[in-house]
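dumping this here so i dont lose it
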């Protein structure tokens, strides 16, 4: 029997439970442990051998569930992204009922990439998508359904929002450990600009203003929110032009 493909593993029917003791090794456990390994040790350290050592099984035992690393990565991406946010009710008489959901949608996918920064490297390009990832596309397109944008424009808007979230996490770095590094770098840059500010007055002014904002309005949070608002503002102008 040929090994299952990535599509078959992502979209195939789950195996029916069999009678007898529950097996200690399952595909779900393999994927969960692979995600934890990539989160803590980085994608470069993810291998079938290293994963087997982490789980405590023979390397060949993994191949009974997943043919290789390519198929494992496809499963990891879909599991790491998880399900999209549930639809939210728009405010009564809202002129832009899609706006609040798309803001939540973009913030949520940015949070997933921040938690699993290795996924940034693996998601570009042509590759199989699983039900979770497809669900993200479906929920965004559904939010814009009835807005006056055609299907291709709604898809392009979705790609634009994903691109903003991805670019920001890539620029500032993903993972919880980067927050302290970011704060330290800002402090060091502040000291440099205090001495050389006359050469870079606009940069000095921008960083000085950032320092006066509340913590939740600085750094990546503010940049993410600012970009989302500008993209949604642009969509609002386009939608209004169709009325």
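and the seq i came up w/
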């Amino acid at each position: 029997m040929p090994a299952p493909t990535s599509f078959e593993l992502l979209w195939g029917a789950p195996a029916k439970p069999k009678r007898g003791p529950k097996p200690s090794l399952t595909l779900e456990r393999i994927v969960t442990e692979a995600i934890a390994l990539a989160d803590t040790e980085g994608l470069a350290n993810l291998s079938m051998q290293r994963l087997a050592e982490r789980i405590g099984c023979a390397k060949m035992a993994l191949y009974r569930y997943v043919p290789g690393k390519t198929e494992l990565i496809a499963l990891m991406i879909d599991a790491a992204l998880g399900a999209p946010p549930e639809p939210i009710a728009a405010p009564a008489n809202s002129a832009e009922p899609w706006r609040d959901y798309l803001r939540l949608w973009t913030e949520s996918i940015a949070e997933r990439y921040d938690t699993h920064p290795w996924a940034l490297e693996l998601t570009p390009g042509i590759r199989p998508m699983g039900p979770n990832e497809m669900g993200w596309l479906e929920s965004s397109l559904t939010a814009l359904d009835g807005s006056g944008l055609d299907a291709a424009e709604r898809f392009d808007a979705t790609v634009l929002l994903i691109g903003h979230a991805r670019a920001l996490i890539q620029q500032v770095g993903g993972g919880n450990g980067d927050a302290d590094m970011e704060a330290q770098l800002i402090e060091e840059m502040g000291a440099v600009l205090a001495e050389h500010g006359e050469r870079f007055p606009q940069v000095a002014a921008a960083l000085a203003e950032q320092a006066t904002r509340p913590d939740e309005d600085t750094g990546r949070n503010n940049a993410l929110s600012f970009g989302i608002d500008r993209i949604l503002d642009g969509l609002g102008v386009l939608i209004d032009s169709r009325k």
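The chain has twelve helices and no strands.
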